[in-house]
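quick one, two chains, predict together pls
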Amino acid sequence: MALYDQITIIGLGLIGSSMARGIKEEELTNKLVGYDNNPDHQVQIREYKLVDELAPDLLSAVENADLVILATPVGAYGSIGELIGSRMKAGATLSDVGSIKSAVFEMLAPHVSENVHFIPAHPVAGTEQSGPGAGFPSLFHDRWAIITPTENTDQEALEQLTKFWEALGSNVEIMDPEHHDKVLAITSHVPHLIAYNIVGTARDLEEVTKSEVIKFSAGGFRDFTRIAASNPTMWRDVFLNNKEAVLEMLGRFSEDLIALQRAIRWDDGDALYEMFVKTRRIRKQIIDAGQDENVVNFGRRHDD
Amino acid sequence: MALYDQITIIGLGLIGSSMARGIKEEELTNKLVGYDNNPDHQVQIREYKLVDELAPDLLSAVENADLVILATPVGAYGSIGELIGSRMKAGATLSDVGSIKSAVFEMLAPHVSENVHFIPAHPVAGTEQSGPGAGFPSLFHDRWAIITPTENTDQEALEQLTKFWEALGSNVEIMDPEHHDKVLAITSHVPHLIAYNIVGTARDLEEVTKSEVIKFSAGGFRDFTRIAASNPTMWRDVFLNNKEAVLEMLGRFSEDLIALQRAIRWDDGDALYEMFVKTRRIRKQIIDAGQDENVVNFGRRHDD
């Protein structure tokens, strides 16, 4: 059941290539076109047969598309929008998968023709790997896809995009872009920044060697290194483009950390204990909500 | 091959019960005695048949033991040491599994008879679960067991304890207690504190609801919740008893975080990118060193 006659994906990294695989598997289009300016990606896109047609340039990629999905790092959206915004088919939909939404409006909206439906979206899914080889079609299964329409968004186009994400296996949530950016700042952006930061701090210690950090990482540190291995370009662009919400959440985080630090310095064991009991409950709720799996130690080997 | 005629484990939570299972499996003693003051644990210890004898009190638990292992939260060590330190057999070994080592010396050494070998140790292994039911014998396989002897430690007793941990599947590392506490502060204690902290910050937000935090946790947050679900009593005791090293590492962490925050505020994308590329390499090294598994996304479901 083709939802769009032609779908074009710009950027076939982890997310774009997972979508391409899911679109093929679910037969959501009659023609899947891809465009990627990275020569390594181009080779892999052909090798994995990810699309029906790999376009040689942006304009030929989008000119006949009924749905165009931007899946590059968000830092590239502005220049792509400038090129394609007025060259898409009347009635087509332009969407994306970026981890921020307010800045995406600002970057793209000025370039998009009035007869194109511009509806940003963000699938809350991913792994620490990057590139066309890292994708897999079930990446979006049982994950949330957040769509951020405005009050002027065409309802039919929105319904079609909702069906599209549901067909890829996601649950769809409609959200205001500013609220999206706050929710994601705390559930995704700040956790990534903190993970990058602790890994950096550990790396720079003089008294404790890097080999010791690696050797004894099973004490907890290794959990942080997974998300600190995510795509550097993508994350640079996220932080630069969700500055306000990230700085606000970081402020709260640091304030709370100072309070814990003070409790340690002044031997306030009750404050620490009370805090640790509360946070323990959150994991159970995440598992109950189906947002993580109920396997101990992330299912690491347990050979008995 | 029994390494000790009688082994006594005080406290059969995750670590103690995993040791009991491993000791049985490898037949490392002729008699395994346990003591635990938690009534729930007592029921489970019998149910799982974890020991040959569950002792009714501390003194009868230790009086005939050749090896006594303390596996309670470290906050209880002082009072246990006071009771048993002068009541153990001459020539026996007293060891532990606590996540800190300098404070353990201070708490126990004054109570231990001269004819008892006091050799602290710390297996760097664990899961987010607690209690006798959570243990499994392979918990220590291919993990590091750090032993922190002094210059006066009896070499034969040290060799025997080394064999014991190797028989449980661990690699043994000999370390100075102060250095141990610094290494673990960065590889384990500060990561746990940060995880507890971000989960707490997320929980307290007014604009973003707790249900949204749970719903969209797949964006990265859920990785932190695993270690923030660890035993609250154990972790309270760790922070209170490794204060100096934890506060120092926290200071470095906060300093580095402020630098990242500043880079975001001033749009310094190059600084962010450079940092994110460096940290990415650390995960690869941890996997190459066999300290984490090379499975994407912690092996979460990937149904294709």
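Chain A is about 50% helix and 10% strand.
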